[in-house]
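Q: Structure tokens for this one, please.
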Amino acid sequence: MSRFFSEKYSNLEAYTPGEQPKDMKYVKLNTNESPFPPSPKALAYAAEAAKRLQLYCDPECTALTREFAKLYGIKSDEVLFTNGSDDALNFCFMAFCDDDHPAAFPDITYGFYPVFAELNHVPYEEIVLNDDFTIDVDDYCGINKTIFIANPNAPTGIALNLSDIERIVKSNPDNVVIVDEAYVDFGAESAVGLIKQYDNLLVTQTFSKSRSLAGGRLGMAIGDASLIRDLNTIKYSTNPYNINTMTQAAGTGTILDDAYSRKNCAIIAENRAYLTEKLEKLGFVHTPSTANFVFVKHPNYDGEKLYLELKKRGVLIRHFTKERIRDYNRITVGTREQLDILLTHIVQLLEETA
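A: Here is the predicted structure, written as tokens:
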């Protein structure tokens, strides 16, 4: 750090994103991107929008908001688009957390939650998952804190059912419960339908995974209109033009071509089952994932070593160093061709150590 860096951030540990190496061509199964390109309609809309880049973008995302609200059966004032769902989550820490409203989230979950808490000087509690990495719903009921739950959770892929989510929301009426649904479209139940019943529920989603727009940086928060107004206050106090013109257009095209995304999600779910079955036969154990990744370990092969050996062979997966999960690796579900390349290398590695 320079001698000018503020002391208030001196202990901040920044989030570590999945690596994006350029030293060789990799089979990239480490950052949960979609293996499929954006919708043709999304690309066409973005190309047309590029002709207007000399003008500022629409801060209200009017067309995108209208089409999204229509698709999800909500009102336009019940959704806010952000620069990726990370932006929405950061806004939530800023808007709904303070010394009187500390944050709470699992000890093993999306790594940005503690970073956002530290960045915004928010006190927080990390609630320990069960031994099988499931959430104990009772740990979150009536705790009077601003709760963040990734559903499905990351990096485990384990999802809570809707009744459990509702129990948590209902038992904390004076605090906001944020349900981070980055991976919901691959097999879990969305809580969006509950926003009409609970004014303390906020759902975040992203276009990065199921909608093939990771590079477009588009996310959203969905909830009661009063919560959305709160987030808009934060947005207009930081960066009103946070969604560029081409991304807004690509997002609109994606929504208008929703069948394309749903078809890709179904393929990924099929490929997830294929990968899981193959890995089980090779001796791996895994959590019950409903996301676009699997979370696995092998009883006879070190997790970090597997990650490093696969990287040498041109296959990237994600390894975490946190003590409870250091034996595991998270593997993005790619195309069948990508998965077969991965499996071929894993078989070779296991044979070398047999």
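A few notes: The chain has two domains: 14-36+259-353, 40-257. The longest helix spans residues 258-281.
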